[in-house]
TrEMBL record:
Keywords from the UniProt entry: Chloroplast, Plastid, Ribonucleoprotein, Ribosomal protein, RNA-binding, rRNA-binding
Keyword Ribosomal protein annotated: yes
Coiled-coil boundaries: none
Function, in words: Binds directly to 23S ribosomal RNA and is necessary for the in vitro assembly process of the 50S ribosomal subunit. It is not involved in the protein synthesizing functions of that subunit.
Location(s) in or outside the cell: Plastid, Chloroplast
Protein's name in the database: Large ribosomal subunit protein bL20c
Molecular functions per Gene Ontology: rRNA binding; structural constituent of ribosome
GO biological process: ribosomal large subunit assembly; translation
Record-stated family: Belongs to the bacterial ribosomal protein bL20 family.
GO cellular component terms listed in the entry, alphabetical order: chloroplast; ribonucleoprotein complex; ribosome
Main localisation: plastid
Amino acid sequence: MTRVRRRYIARRRRTKIRFFASTFRGAHSRLIRTITQQKIRALASSHRDRGRQKRDFRRLWITRINAITREKSVLYSYSRLIHNLYKKQLLLNRKIPAQIAISNKNCLYMISNKIIKSNSNKVDYKVMYSKGMIETKQNSPE
């Protein structure tokens, strides 16, 4: 078979790869074989760290919310706050309360206190029925 000289096609491919690795240091930005290896490694790292970044930010937001909620009242915690938010069907992700906690602590206090007060005012009829405080229409004499 005759030899194929790739000329500008190979040069185009290499310049594309070099452009990707232009910010790398040393041979990682000059030699084609090491550039390709570093490119594979960089893309794998970026793919892995996208998931890790989401995880790290979620942990940061949870820590911030927990610190602010525990600062004001000792009995109230992050887990209770989130549980009560779900019970009230307030669909807030962790990012929004964390930003509120940084920018305006009083606003987060107001939200949490409103949830606490509304939960304490709620009457649990099952407990009252089991203790005999209320009766159903079937059991009451008419």
